[in-house]
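Input record (Table S2, row 482):
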Amino acid sequence: MMKILNISTECYPAAKAGGLGDVVGALPIYLNKLDCEASVIIPKYSTDWMVSKKWKKKSQFELESGNNTYQITIFILNDTSFPYDLYAVDIPTLFDRKSIYLDENGKGYKDEAERNVVFQLSVLTWLCRLKYKFDVLHCHDHMSGLIPFLIDHSQVFSRLKKTPTLFTIHNGQYQGIFNWSKSELLPAYEPSARGLLEWDGKINSLACAIKCSWMVSTVSPSYMKELKENFGSLTSLIRHESSKCIGILNGIDTSVWNPKTDSLLPITFKTEISRFKIDNKKELSSKLNIGSNKVWISFIGRLAYEKGADLLAPAIDQLLTKKREIIFVLLGSGDENVAIALKQLEIKYPKNISVTIAYNEALSHQIYAASDFLMMPSRFEPCGLNQMYAMRYGTIPIVNHTGGLIDTVPDIDFDGNGFDYTPNNVEKLCQVIIRAVSFTKNKEDMEKLRQKIVALDFSWEKSAQEYKNIYQNLIILSNHAS
Ligand code: ADP
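Output record (adenosine-5'-diphosphate complex):
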């Protein structure tokens, strides 16, 4: 049975800041159903979930990086009901924090380079001390992007040489770029390999991963295509490495996102989708103090430029000056200016907007269940999970034509699943919302579309098989190499 280790900084339900956590949390479950032995290693944070669990010590060692010495402990989750081996790296001072990436002001931690490097060195040091070997190391995003380089070019980790690596880009916007002064955090490496760490005069963890890993994947085929067309200064690199690149669409964990059993919902799905929507809308309308007799259009996500969150306030304002038949239900956290603009709109149109500035897992489930539409004006969307969750709960997506949204939400005019628009600006967003609202007037079409989308299959089975095929090919390659 092949042994796969996922190396990540998020894993639902232990620690999640976005889609990365969902994917790393679910993929091993589905791989193990395909006779793999997949496990996950993440940093040990002080999230409620991680603090509340019992952990068993597996290994303990000292690690030097820069001028500091760290006391590292590797734990394994001591819970037989958990579906796979979950390891956690305890690095006091760097990771014993509640929030995964952001400080109390919502800004990225200043010691990001130290955190990322020490986490990766800890994982590699532990792997070198193990009696057995993992067959493939699956690294996720730039936070584990230096691992393929360190395996190949640092004598310290020579025991791991020839271990195949797959690097998955969940979000190419974040690249782990550091000044060369941070190279002192790394152990000695072959001087001739220095160029592999570099892009545009700095250390670039994502670029380094693209150069050094055995295979590179993105979380949807369209996103891979887009990166090859325009990945900023990395376009030439990804084109150059094209032969080892592939796009695999994320699945969703249909056991967590199941409207029939979801314990976070006040009312679960019985037999009729329209009943399920009406009942959940009623429940949530009294909780949020808004009406239930209008069309609900929601947004759930990070209030970030890449999510097009800055388009929301102007579009909503423009629509509500003319049309009052819509209620906007918004849940998100992030950019403070966007949050303020939305909160001001809530004061201006109290009957037509509900804005919750927070990260709230339960509320997100309730909004997916209660809404008529979910809008995603994303500028980039490597895969996007929200649209798939929405459809599973009978909520019709309204999406900008980009990345994974292209792969999952063809427009209803092309026999698709939702409303698709482009280019992505306030005018077009308003137009597509008006098109969606007028669609609700025909109850029969609305019902048909809801029934169609709840029945779509976005489960992990197919994608997990694609990952397994990649692992198998990598193992064959490594056998030839040794
Ligand atoms: P990204 O990883 O780029 O943020 P994805 O669409 O891949 O976007 O994943 C977003 C995940 O995070 C979804 O599970 C979504 O429901 C969840 N999410 C985002 N913001 C919030 C929030 N404020 N409250 C609850 N869940 C949220």
